[in-house]
Design goal:
4 helices
Length: 171
């Protein structure tokens, strides 16, 4: 419940229910974050650099298929990741854990902003055909997401460690 004069009272039933889900939320958030971290490193080191080898005749067809198929893989993971990350900032009570959760959520915001403002425009430009400058922008700008997801997996891993190794202080 909130203190008098600080806003509407929080629904304590909802918060208590989140408390019972904290362990599974942490594990699920770590799982999807780890999956996205592994995937983004593969994309950064293998997949994006190899795009330059496709050839101009088939590049637009390739790019369209790449974007469609990738969306089916990363879309659900990214949605689960953001929902569980948001739930964690409401469920955690320990100030140190909450600070870690907010840092991890801010990295996720950076990832989404980078995706919308940098990677999606580069991919859309590549739909018209291979463009070396757009490809280079994609490869270089993707380091933002690669490093942010790496930071996220470390922070969310620390949250899981604190919660499961020190349950009295981890929530």
């Amino acid at each position: 419940m909130s203190s008098p004069g600080t806003g509407p009272p929080l629904n304590t039933d909802f918060l208590n229910h989140l408390d019972t889900l904290l362990g599974p939320l942490l594990v699920l958030n770590l799982g999807v974050t780890a999956a996205m971290t592994g995937l983004i490193w593969f994309v950064q080191v293998v997949h994006y650099p190899l795009m330059a080898q496709i050839g101009p005749q088939h590049y637009s067809t390739y790019q369209r298929a790449h974007m469609s198929r990738t969306s089916w893989v990363v879309g659900p993971l990214m949605i689960i990741e953001v929902v569980t990350a948001l739930a964690l900032v409401f469920a955690l009570r320990d100030q140190n854990s909450l600070a870690l959760a907010w840092r991890a959520l801010s990295l996720l915001a950076l990832i989404w902003i980078s995706t919308a403002c940098l990677q999606v425009p580069a991919h859309n430009r590549l739909l018209e055909g291979f463009d070396p400058k757009a490809h280079q922008r994609l490869v270089v700008s993707n380091w933002v997401r690669t490093l942010a997801w790496t930071g996220r997996v470390l922070l969310v891993g620390m949250l899981n460690y604190v919660y499961f190794a020190h349950p009295a202080t981890g929530a």
